[in-house]
């Protein structure tokens, strides 16, 4: 197992608990939901944040529109005695993404080679083709993973 494959699997293990976390934010955003739950007015919140009341409204709007910066969101969270939790959660395990990418590249290469081999009446099919495919996929995964992302596919 390559070091990069081990790194992907280790990161997958750290990310796994986040996959089941219900990350749907409240309709008016976390800042507004927590401020409201604490019974804090925008004026009181502005004082805690050290900004104007309209700036609080702008922060809350920025969160719902996804235009607030992480730095401002962190400051706003701290003023509510909250931690900002920031994570990227891949849609599938990273190891699976790598394998799927290597398989797609391999399939494209095999299709090009298969066309040439058919023209020369040397086509490989069945179990031998599947074996060659697996060897090519494994070879890609053992090499520099950056090779998987060289093109825009």
Content-based structural category = mainly alpha
In percent terms, what proportion of residues is strand? under 5%
Q: How much helical structure, as a percent, in the residues?
A: 55-70%
Whole-number total of structural domains? 2
- Which spans of ≥5 residues are poorly predicted at pLDDT below 50? none
Output the radius of gyration. Answer: 25 Å
What's the SSE pattern? HHHHHHH
How far is the first residue's CA from the last residue's CA? 25 Å
- The average pLDDT value, as a whole number, equals 87
Number of strands: 0
Approximate shape: elongated
Question: How many separate helices?
Answer: 7
Biggest β-sheet description: none
Describe the structure in your own words.
The chain has 153 residues and is mostly helical. The protein folds into 2 domains: 24-79, no CATH class; 94-149, no CATH class. The relative contact order is 0.12. It is elongated and about 70 Å long. The protein has helices spanning 3-19, 30-37, 42-49, 53-65, 70-79, 94-119, 126-142. Helix content is 65%, strand content 0%. The two termini are 25 Å apart. Helix 3 (42-49) packs across helix 4 (53-65) and helix 6 packs across helix 7.
């Amino acid at each position: 197992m390559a070091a990069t494959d081990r790194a992907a699997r280790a990161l997958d293990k750290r990310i796994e608990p986040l996959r089941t976390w219900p990350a749907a934010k409240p309709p008016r955003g976390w800042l507004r939901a927590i401020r409201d739950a604490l019974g804090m007015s925008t004026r009181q919140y502005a004082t805690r944040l050290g900004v104007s009341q309209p700036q609080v409204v702008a922060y809350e709007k920025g969160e719902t529109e996804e235009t607030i910066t992480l730095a401002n969101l962190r400051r706003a969270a701290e003023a509510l005695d909250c931690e900002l939790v920031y994570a990227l959660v891949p849609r599938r395990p990273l190891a699976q993404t790598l394998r799927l990418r290597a398989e797609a590249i391999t399939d494209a290469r095999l299709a090009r080679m298969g066309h040439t081999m058919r023209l020369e009446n040397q086509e490989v099919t069945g179990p031998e083709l599947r074996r060659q495919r697996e060897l090519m996929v494994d070879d890609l995964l053992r090499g520099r993973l950056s090779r998987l992302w060289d093109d825009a596919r």
